[in-house]
Design brief:
Blueprint (H helix, E strand, L loop, with lengths): L1 H23 L5 H12 L5 H7 L4 H13 L3 E5 L7 E5 L1 H21 L5 H18 L21
Antiparallel strand pairs: 1-2
GO molecular function: DNA binding
Pfam family, one: MarR_2
Protein name: DNA-binding MarR family transcriptional regulator
């Protein structure tokens, strides 16, 4: 059944990621990497926006942000746009980590798809992208890209 296979592949991919991080000397989970990577491309967003950028629930992401802040990878400051909100941004240490860890992340991604030929990889990724895009609105934590001035929200 597809749901079972997707769950198993998620377990496998998480395990491969953890193995590669440990082997490379990094203490980072997939969600932590996703958060740091998203902040590298979208500095000064609030936690709700970050959750949408990585399609993760806000409650769980709060703990992730807290741990990353404690470790010195990101900071929370009062937002210049909304004084009630906290803007998240990478510290120098966080920016350095995102750059330094990238080869290990790429190795993990390659390892996940290692059993597939290059053509199968392309097809598999295209089909996964199609299925996830089509089901995004049904997700408990949908992917929500930030709206740019004069454009519609990317996931609508």
């Amino acid at each position: 059944m597809p749901g079972h296979l997707i769950r198993r592949l998620h377990q496998i991919s998480t395990s491969i990621f953890a193995e590669e991080m440990a082997h490379s000397g990094f203490d980072l989970t997939p969600v932590q990497y996703a958060a740091l990577s998203a902040l590298a491309g979208h500095p000064d967003v609030d936690q709700n926006t970050l959750a949408g950028l990585i399609a993760h629930d806000r409650a769980t992401l709060g703990g992730v942000v807290e741990r990353l802040e404690r470790r010195g990878y990101l900071r929370r400051e009062v937002s210049r746009v909304d004084r009630r909100a906290r803007a998240l941004s990478l510290t120098e240490k966080g920016r350095a980590l995102v750059t330094t860890v990238l080869p290990a992340v790429r190795r993990a991604q390659e390892d996940i798809l290692a059993p597939l030929t290059p053509a199968e990889r392309a097809t598999f990724l295209a089909l996964m992208d199609k299925a996830t895009a089509a089901g995004n609105k049904r997700a408990r934590a949908p992917l929500r890209l930030p709206q740019r001035e004069g454009t519609a929200v990317a996931d609508d």
